[in-house]
Amino acid sequence: MSFFKKLFGGGSASAEPAGDKVLGEEGYKGFLIKAIEMKVGSELQLAGTIEKDIDGALKTYRFIRADRMSSREDLVALALGKGRQIIDEQGDRIFS
Questions:
Q1: Please, what is the Cα angle at 95 between 90 and 96, to 5 degrees?
Q2: 12-22: b or e for each residue (b if 16 or more CB lie within 10 Å)?
Q3: Among 13, 78, 82, 92, which is least packed, fewest CB within 10 Å?
Q4: CA distances from 30 to 26, 27, 66, 84, 95 (A)
Q5: The domain that contains 34 carries what CATH number?
Q6: Domain residues for 41?
Q7: What pLDDT does residue 4 have?
Q8: Class of residue 24 by CB neighbours under 10 A (exposed 0-12, middle 13-18, buried 19+)
Q9: pLDDT tens digits for 13-35?
């Protein structure tokens, strides 16, 4: 049975969000940016979410980048910065 779990996605992956553990967050131009912990071995991979309430519905955009680091402080700073950059470049279009 474990062969089929791994084959069809039920097995463990090498990079998984740790229950979307939020390491830091900030509000920016009406959006909420969250830095998310994503462990890959002993390193942390740059990941986060951007949220906004649009017409009473909470919209969420998830981003994952290739950058890896060992410091949580660096991860938070880079993830929040990347979130601001995405918002500046795309605005509400990230949800469409």
A1: 95
A2: eeeeeeeeeee
A3: 13
A4: 10, 7, 27, 11, 14
A5: 3.30.160
A6: 14-95
A7: 52
A8: middle
A9: 444 444 579 999 999 999 999 99
Residue type, 80: L
8 Å CB contact between 48 and 63: yes
Radius of gyration of the chain (CA): 15
End-to-end Cα separation, the chain, in angstroms? 39
Q: What is the pLDDT of residues 59-89, one digit of tens each?
A: 999 999 999 999 999 999 999 999 999 999 9
* Domain assignment present for 6: no
**Domain tally for the chain?**
1
User: How far is Cα 77 from Cα 25, in angstroms, rounded to an integer?
Assistant: 10
DSSP structure class, residue 22: E
3-state class (DSSP) for residue 75: helix
What are the residues whose beta carbons fall under 8 Å from the beta carbon of 9, sequence distance 6 or more? none
